[in-house]
Design goal:
Shape: globular
Distance between the termini: 46 Å
Radius of gyration: 19 Å
Helix content: over 70%
Structural class: mainly alpha
Largest sheet: none
Length: 264
């Protein structure tokens, strides 16, 4: 797939030209898929009993884990094997610069702060304290492991690949360090994905679907903000999404496994 440089260049040029409407279409599709999956799969699993729910969650977790790991591996290999991925990334970034109105950038600068280190640190501490006060030490530990572990994982991956950032950022967002994978992207996926998981565990059923849709919206918005602010290449953001998804899936599956073992 990544060896067809001509096709990828054409796709990158087209995506850069239509980045704003394309991002809205993708967000709409993600939200629609989440909504449809919830109403098509979850009610039947609930009616079938706890065993069906566990089977469904396990299948979704394994599928998500394998898909995320596969995509990340493809991107990592392409980055290490030669300059083709870098050329495609740069073409997309250059095209984005020429077609996105500057008036849209302050909006993305605000959205990107939702996954700043300071914000996620404060969120991590606040949620952990709240969970302990609600007598949920297991979930508190899982939350800290998910958010803190992802941070350590991302720092380690950045050091392995040591990719420099785009050179034409607008200066609306601070972006020190290496570029691959995007820490904001992985952090948003893990933090807000775990918040949605906690909502499923602790809140009344009427809040479950809104929590999922909100988590998807925030994570996606943070990811695309890194592109529009040009502090990351497209492959950085996609890799960050995938590494965050893999870590999120591992943490949730681990929590569920431990909770089942404790019950029985």
């Amino acid at each position: 797939m990544l060896t067809d440089a001509k096709w990828l260049a054409q796709a990158a040029f087209w995506a850069g030209q239509h980045a704003l409407p394309l991002s809205l279409v993708l967000l709409t599709l993600l939200l629609a898929s989440t909504w449809a999956g919830w109403w098509l799969l979850w009610p039947s699993a609930r009616m079938s009993g706890p065993r069906a729910q566990k089977t469904l969650l396990t299948a979704l977790g394994i599928t998500t884990l394998l898909l995320g790991a596969s995509v990340f591996t493809v991107l990592a290999k392409a980055l290490l094997m030669g300059p083709e991925l870098g050329r495609v990334d740069q073409l997309f970034t250059d095209t984005l610069l020429a077609h996105v109105p500057p008036s849209a950038l302050p909006v993305f600068a605000l959205l990107t702060h939702l996954a700043d280190t300071a914000v996620l640190t404060g969120l991590g501490i606040g949620v952990a304290v709240a969970l302990v006060s609600w007598r949920q030490p297991g979930l508190a530990l899982a939350w800290v492991a998910a958010v803190g572990g992802n941070s350590l994982l991302n720092v380690s991956l950045k050091q392995v690949f040591a990719r420099t950032r785009p050179l034409d950022a607008d200066g609306l967002a601070l972006a020190p360090g290496f570029s691959f994978p995007s820490g904001h992207s992985s952090g948003a996926v893990v933090a807000y994905g775990m918040l949605a998981y906690l909502a499923l565990k602790l809140l009344p059923p009427r809040w479950h679907l809104p929590a999922l849709l909100t988590a998807v919206t925030i994570a996606f918005s943070v990811c695309v903000s890194r592109l529009f602010l040009r502090v990351h290449f497209a492959s950085d953001v996609l890799a960050g999404c995938m590494s965050g998804t893999v870590w999120l899936a591992l943490c949730i599956m681990g929590v569920e496994l431990l909770r089942r073992s404790a019950k029985g």
